[in-house]
Automatic annotation (TrEMBL):
This is Transposase IS116/IS110/IS902 family protein. InterPro entries: Transp_IS110-like_N (IPR002525), Transpos_IS110 (IPR047650), Transposase_20 (IPR003346). Residues 359-451 are annotated as: Disordered. GO terms for biological process: DNA transposition. Residues 401-414, 422-432 have a biased composition (Low complexity). It holds the Pfam family DEDD_Tnp_IS110. Residues 365-399 have a biased composition (Basic and acidic residues). It comes from Novipirellula artificiosorum. Signal peptide: none annotated. Residues 6-143 form the Transposase IS110-like N-terminal domain.
Length: 451
């Protein structure tokens, strides 16, 4: 078996061609550039290309696989790389050791994501880098105001409503006198802060656009308490969920398992190992504390582990972070969204669940993302407008009906008055005509009597 071991460097790479049968090796130094590495890989007739996991290993691994070479990207955190007591360390020695360890199968391979996923992972990390730069700039500005004895607002208020007060002290550096140079420095830092804020907004918009088209991110966001930033980091770290066989491997990957020291009858567990991606571990712990407000299941798990003891709060938070990581991995593996009823089955398989928590999970509504919430609010607004228009039309109809009835009543009253007046006049005319007829009859009777 012929092995090509690459000891990658920033400028140059040491290539070791090792034959496992003859145990002979030869070396070649080449620049760490795409064209030179491609030339070496094209001319090499080897069975395996071995390299350590580092920055350039991504594109070199893709290049070797495109040339139909079997590759092995090994982790440098294993015991095989603990070479602290060697008497001589050179690039040739490192490349030769890499080839020999590969021949003995003592190297542990690492997962190499695709180029698209590496770019996505890099963008997720870069957003956090911009966030750290913004915080550092804000702390620098606050330090200047403290040194000058000037009070500014605390918290985020200083950078929103209190920004006008801060801007009143800025001044171009070329216009500053000898005793106000800090105002010129403030002007430069505020310019940097505005630029960084604009850039991080652009990065966040790009991540949100990617998240809308990535089903894995959408699936993880169905967990109450898991937002877009947490879902992005989890997807960036886990990548292919099928590369983990058990949940214990996922917990160890994020460094959320305790250290173990076992010798003879001694078996002692310590603090968590903190191996793996520190950004993912940090965001998982933050997500665990936030889940206590939005996720009844997470709150129940926290209270069960904490046991109302102040000394166990942080341990319960770490344990909840590990559970969230494992649940996220299981959801990606099974391609299923968050289901509160499923969490009832899982919790009851380990122990008893309180009736109140069980009822809460049974009646729990599914979580809405931003688009669903906006759609629901628009629907509710349309329904509210339709109800208002219906009430307005009913009111108009009732008012028109009332006006019609009042008009008919007034017309009826006028008609009745007219009829009453006419009847009265008729009766008056009849009453006035009756005495004349009576007098005529009297006169006729008198005439007849006299005759």
């Amino acid at each position: 078996m012929k092995i090509l071991a690459l000891d990658l460097g920033k400028f140059n790479t040491m290539c070791c061609f090792f034959d496992t049968k003859t145990r002979k090796s030869r070396f070649l130094t080449t620049p760490t550039e795409r064209q030179h590495i491609a030339s070496v890989l094209k001319n090499a007739k080897v069975d395996l290309v071995v390299m350590e996991a580092c920055g350039p290993s991504g594109w070199i691994n893709d290049l070797a696989q495109s040339l139909d070479h079997a590759t092995l990207v090994c982790s440098t955190n294993e015991e095989a790389w603990q070479w602290a007591k060697v008497k001589r360390k050179t690039d040739k020695d490192d490349a030769l050791k890499l080839a020999r360890l590969a021949a003995m199968r003592e190297l542990k391979p690492v997962h190499m994501p695709s180029q698209t996923h590496r770019e996505f992972r890099s963008l997720v990390k870069y957003r956090k880098t911009l966030d750290r730069r913004i915080n550092k700039t804000k702390n620098t500005i606050r330090a200047w105001f403290v040194n000058q004895g000037i009070t500014i607002d605390s918290g985020d208020k200083a950078w929103h409503t209190g920004r006008e007060h801060i801007n009143s002290f800025r001044k171009p550096i070329q216009d500053c006198g000898p005793d106000e140079l800090w105002k010129g420095e403030l002007d430069i830092e505020l310019t940097i802060l505005d630029s960084l804020t604009q850039q991080i907004d652009t990065v966040v918009k790009k991540l949100e656009a990617i998240g809308k088209t990535e089903p894995r991110i959408v699936r993880l966001m169905t967990i109450p308490g898991v937002g877009p930033r947490t879902a992005e980091i989890l997807v960036a770290c886990l990548d292919d969920p099928h590369r983990f066989e058990t949940s214990r491997q996922v917990s160890a990957y994020f460094g959320l398992v305790p250290r173990q020291y076992q010798s003879g009858e001694t078996d002692r567990n310590g603090r968590i190992t903190k191996r793996g991606n520190p950004l993912a571990r940090t965001i998982l712990v933050e997500c665990a504390w936030a889940s206590l407000r939005y996720n009844p299941w997470a709150k129940g798990v926290y209270e069960r582990i904490c046991g109302k003891q102040k000394t166990r709060k942080k341990k319960a938070g770490i344990a909840l972070a590990r559970k969230i990581a494992v649940i996220s991995w299981a959801m990606l593996r099974d391609e299923k969204d968050w289901e509160p009823k499923r969490m009832i089955e899982v919790t009851e398989s380990y122990g008893r669940m309180s009736p109140a928590l069980k009822e809460t999970l049974q009646t729990m509504k599914p979580k809405e993302n931003a688009d669903q919430r906006k759609s629901r609010l628009r629907k509710e607004a349309r329904e509210a407008r339709a109800a208002a228009d219906h009430r307005a039309s009913e009111t108009d109809r009732k008012s028109s009906k009332t006006s019609t009835i009042s008009k008919s009543r007034s017309t009826k009253q006028v008609t009745t008055r007219r009829k009453t007046t006419k009847t009265t006049a008729t009766r008056s005319s009849h009453a006035a005509s009756k005495p004349r007829r009576a007098g005529k009859l009297v006169r006729v009777t008198d005439a007849m009597t006299s005759a």
